[in-house]
Amino acid sequence: MKTKFFLLIGIFTIALTACEGDDNNGDDPTKPLDDAQISFTKMANCPDAEVDQAIVWKDAIYYVNRTSFLRYTPARNEWQSLAPAPSTNLFVWQDKLYCPNSNLDFYVYSAVTEAWEPTTDIAAITDNHFGKILNIGNTLFRIGNSGYYCMFYQSDSREWKYFDGQYSTCSFPFEYSCEIEGKGYSFVGIYLFDPETRITTLKVNIPSKGGTISGCLYNQRQMLYSQCSVSRYDKEDIYATIGIYTPSTNEYNEMTIESKVPNGATNVTQVDIPMVINLLTYFDGRIFVGPNNAAFYELKIR
Hints:
Blueprint: E1 4-6, E2 8-9, E3 38-42, E4 44-45, E5 53-57, E6 60-64, E7 69-73, E8 78-82, E9 91-93, E10 96-100, E11 106-110, E12 115-118, E13 131-136, E14 139-144, E15 151-154, E16 159-162, E17 177-180, E18 183-186, E19 190-194, E20 199-204, E21 212-218, E22 222-230, E23 238-246, E24 251-258, E25 268-270, E26 280-283, E27 286-292, E28 295-301
Parallel strand pairs: 24-25
Antiparallel strand pairs: 1-8, 2-4, 3-28, 5-6, 6-7, 7-8, 9-10, 10-11, 11-12, 13-14, 14-15, 15-16, 17-18, 18-19, 19-20, 21-22, 22-23, 23-24, 26-27, 27-28
């Protein structure tokens, strides 16, 4: 299959995922984030306007929506259009990239053939309830809509099991979470999910300020958080809360940035925010934002 390469220059959005690497903040929750310098660098435009999910695998970031499957290689600032995925639910397990189809059979992506291939690595799910599958602590979890039909995969017996009997529910917001050192952390309020006990615990209560929420792994041991909105009075004025959470100390530090700082405001830092931060992806010490209306940026925190 031929691939199409896109080296366009674009505008902005935010996403966040995990990969190895370092950044300049370090694992230091005592460093005042409000003293940080935040900037956005324009990267190559995405071939599609929007995506449903981003995931890091090997040396690239993979993005998916209902019609497209895309690979972004940060080292080359290059996009490639790939064979469409079976669904919009990508996950990495045992160093392979998987995706279920609408019948809940599994496919694995081959980097050699650049195609999705049927696999029996994972047992098919026999019930017909739709749910998102993700990997936390090397255990696969399948979470249905609104937290219903919560299951985990027992790989030794190749069985999908409900958390606690049939139609189990789970209060952890898996759709808005990332994995840090083998445990799940949500960024809709900061909740901890233990994959062994399957218990959810509130760690930090972050009041909602409205707008688009995003977040993900940061510096391997922290989580980056964003809440971003457009001013209702000035559509060119974008403001956001940027926060860093450190699980080892249970400390959360945040700052407020805005495109146009109101007169007299002392707790807001002016930053040229190109667009609403909606999807954050962390890769090898770098943070990428978007795509949002095809625009794609790198977020830098110094």
